[in-house]
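#structure-requests
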Amino acid sequence: MSLQWTIKPFEALSVNELYDLLQLRSKIFVVEQNCVYLDIDGKDKIALHLFASFEGKIVAHARLFKPGISFDNASIGRVVVDADYRDRKWGNDLMREAIAAISNQFNETKITIGAQLYLKKFYESHGFVQLSEMYLEDDIPHIDMVRQ
């Protein structure tokens, strides 16, 4: 069985989809990373939500933004794969889908991200290069990266 990809604006998400997306993000960004911060930052309403389902369960998610919302360029954020499925390397599929969706939905190819520092090599494998010095966001080391 393969991943089923969906992309929707906030208003088109079902109540169950929204719940599952927020639960997945909370499971990873708050519990797994032991980081108490407000994941629901007000940007979900203006993002396109890209997510993958496997056997009826949402297992991967990313938010996609037009230029001028998170960065001057289009951007990808809240990139997450359920820990129970990371051994399948679906993060690579998620990034390929997200990059393609930025191009298809926004007609943009230049993408900026705020990446957790430990994922630098992962994002480099998708064409991103470091743009900034390390900074702390919610006490987690981050760097800005860009894909031309």
